Amino acid sequence: MRQYSPDLTPGWKKSRPVPEVPAEPGLVVEEPGSGFCGAVIRCEAGTVTLEDRFGKHRVFPLEPRGFLLEGRVVTLVRPASGPPRPTRTASGSVAVPGARARVARAGRIYVEGRHDAELVEKVWGDDLRIEGVVVEYLEGVDDLQAIVEEFGPGPDARLGVLVDHLVPGSKESRIAEAVTSEHALVVGHPYIDVWEGVKPSSLGIQSWPRVPRGQDWKTGVCRALGWPENTGAAWQHILGRVRSYKDLEPTLLGRVEELIDFVTESGGA
To answer: Is the pTM of this model over 0.85?
Structure first.
């Protein structure tokens, strides 16, 4: 092995105390020698496997001072095994080990699109099952008024609806106003698509691209980021980077929490 004199040793490999960090799944680190940056997906005896934002996997040895975490040199170590400790759900709520799902309420939460439903399930699924709240997805909001009328929200069957790109003066905002009542709440986020509700930093990008009007937004995002123009695969990559509520924008978090509170508060059971 090549030996370096002290003044030629790379700064990130100099012998000085550095933190030891468990290589927990989802931890994003960089291997400075190669510049490869990715999330931990597996840690075995002596090695760690990282996945970058394109889904590429690389295996690296667990060497002392071998990685950068948020720009700081760290030593990754294999996570300790032992009895499970109290933890939290992906939404940040205290987990209840062994809790059984509650019988579903009559109330529901509707979200606009399959991707929205999958994201809500991943982050809030444990909480929703304990509360007995079912989430269903809509293909769009054009028929929302008829859907709400058919559902017939009431004191024992509250309805919450999450709408994409709900901005003042839009068609969506007029539809939302028309169906909102004491027992039906429609809220929305300002994003063109729920993809934007995921923090760019969680995906290793600076920001979400601006896509010119007239172009399909999701396809335009894939093209701008250099991803294959397969929106289904792109969404699975995005969803795979969401580990908890910390990976979502506060605006989206607030709207979903508002709907859950509305459906589950007294009178909605």
So the answer is: no
Distance of CA 19 to the CA centre of its chain: 27
The string of pLDDT tens digits covering residues 169-209 is 777 788 888 888 899 999 888 888 999 999 999 999 999 99
- 3 state DSSP class of 109: strand
Asked if residues 211 and 161 have their Cβ atoms less than 8 Å apart, the reply is: no
* 137 bridge partner residues: 111
| Helices of type H across 78-164 | 114-131, 144-151
Cβ neighbours around 9 below 10 Å, total: 12
Of 101, 51, 39, the closest CA to residue 76 belongs to: 39
* 161 within 8 A of 186, measured Cβ to Cβ: yes
Q: pLDDT tens, 46-60? A: 889 988 877 788 899
Alpha helix locations (H) across 132-249?
144-151, 171-179, 200-203, 217-225, 231-240
Phi, psi of 57 (to 5 degrees): -105, 140
The dihedrals phi and psi of 127, each to the nearest 5 degrees, come to: -65, -45
φ, ψ for residue 234, nearest 5 deg: -65, -40
DSSP-assigned beta bridge partners for residue 28:
39
SS3 (DSSP) at 228: coil
Higher pLDDT, 54 or 218: 218
